[in-house]
Structures are given as C-alpha cells and as structure tokens.
Amino acid sequence: MALVAPRALLVLGNPDYEWLADESGYVSCRAAHEVWKTFGIGDRFGFSIVGGHGHCRLPDSQKPEVEAFVNKFLLGDTSANTEVQTHSFDKVNHRQWYDGWLTGTSTFPVPDTSNIASSFYEVECGTRGSDWVTHHDNEASNGAYVAIRDGLNSTADAPENAKGILTIPFSVARTDTYYVFGRVNCASADDDSFWIKVDNADFNPANGLRTTGWDWVKMDKLTLTKGNHTLTIGYREDGAQLDKIGITTYLYGPSDRGEKAVNHCED
Ligand SMILES: [Ca+2]
Ligand SMILES: [Ca+2]
Ligand SMILES: [Ca+2]
Fold it and tell me: In whole angstroms, how far apart are CA 9 and each of 3, 86, 97, 218?
C-alpha cells in the first residue's frame, strides 16, 4: 500500500469475507498511513472497513467516503474531506506493530507470566436463549459446545430477541486489563463471528475468528474492576461453534482446553 504514496489511496474492507480485511488488514492500513503522514499528506490515505453487506457491494455508509476521494483527487475539489478511518477494531493496539519505525524503540509487549489472573467458563453451562443448541464433541472442553440454530445470521446488528442471547456471570480477582478469549471451532469466514459485550456496554462484533479445529481466539479486550460482571454473547454467523470462555490478563490467551471452569456443570 505504501508504494502508492504520494498518490491517494482509499482502502475498502469487508471483514465478513476472508481476505477482505480482518484485524491484520486494519493494522496494515494504520501502518501504511504512517508513510503518507511522514510526507505531510495524511489526507491522501484512508480506510473504511465495514461488515454486514454482500461481497463487492458498496453499502450506503461508504458512498460518501468514496465520493470524497474521487472529488478531491480526480475532480480537484480540495474542500472534500478525505479523513476516512472507519473500522470496528477499537480494541486493537495497532501502534505496537510499527512504533519502532516512528520512535526507534518497539513497545511490542513481553508477556508477563508471573502474575496472570484467569478464570474459565463452559459456555454450555451458561444461560442460553432457546435458539442456542448444545452439541457434544469429545474434543470440546466438558464434552460439549454451543452453536446457534442453522440459518440464523445477524451480521449488521446484534440480535434483539432474547432467544439468540447467552449470558455468563463471571468475576475477576483484581482490577486490570482483561482479554476475553473464546475456544471456538470456526470452519470458514462465513462461520466465524459473534456479538459480544460485558455488562452494559454496546455489542461489538468479534469477527474473523476462523480456526482449524478447536482453538482459542481473542474476542474482546477491556478494563474490568475487581468483582462480578456479566458476559453477553449474541449470534452473528451460523456455523460458529463456541466451547469455552477464558477471561485473562494474559495477552496471548489460554492453551489446550484451559483450566477447569468456574461454572462447571454436567452436560
Ligand atoms: Ca465472518
Ligand atoms: Ca455460516
Ligand atoms: Ca464446553
């Protein structure tokens, strides 16, 4: 992307499709933008990564962004606003991937394994709306996982019906930054997302979670105060299978099946 500089470039992404802009695509855009900014022409690079619409279709929300770039750089309208940075990756620390270029010192974090606070929860032991179905698999923790009924998809917004919601009460041992990891089995880019929120926050899409078999993926990052909280998950794409939740201060997440769940149940 940076080889296009000093000419203008607008990058459009759709995180519902594999290779059409996932978290790494977002980080790459942030890094490339630094090159334009170094030349004092940051307005000549923009990115808009928006899901919830079909392949190769421009949703209405992106039309003004494209028109601004066309008006400014092809039609000479210098007043067009090309400061376009649209995405749903607020929780991603993009700077750590390229700040070594900018400051000479990389801040990429060294994981602190001496003082990890973690707790684990079986999703099948949480409170599930009736559209969530429990399945059995010896490769899943506790032998069971959940998935939404086939045919249910809710990519543009979180489902409003309680039947599509599952909730897991949890508590954390200290006030700190936590990562919410899910042990998932998500076979394709059409089967790899959920809506997620903690307590009364807005739902965020956790998308692009594709795995090969059961694996841990990062679904959220947030600061939590010591004590009790509620994790709420809504369906987004059918076929996404969810086994277990690990809530941890450890950036790189759990391995294997994680530790025994706080809410362990017979299933
Ligand atoms: Ca997806
Ligand atoms: Ca699907
Ligand atoms: Ca499980």
Answer: 10, 14, 21, 30
pLDDT tens-digit readout, 2-23: 999 999 999 999 988 877 777 8
CB 230 within 8 A of CB 170: yes
Ligand nearest to C-alpha 237: 2
Structure tokens that stand for 114 in this block: 């001496």
In this model, does residue 186 exceed pLDDT 80? yes
The residue among 254, 9, 231, 250 whose CA lies nearest residue 123 is 231
Ligand number nearest to the C-alpha of 20: 1
Residues whose Cβ atom is located within 5 A of ion ligand 3: 122, 140-142, 144, 243-244
Question: CB–CB of 132/252 below 8 Å?
Answer: no
User: Which CATH superfamily, name and number, covers 119-248?
Assistant: Galactose-binding domain-like (2.60.120.260)
**Order of strands, sheet of 45-49, starting from the edge strand that comes earlier in the sequence:** 9-13, 45-49, 85-86
Query: 263 phi and psi, to 5 degrees?
Result: -100, 30
Compute the distance from residue 16 Cα to the ligand 3 centre, in Å.
Answer: 25
Domain ranges of the chain: 2-103, 119-248
pTM: 0.81
Q: How many CA atoms lie within 13 A of 247 on its CB side?
A: 29
pLDDT at 267 over 70: no
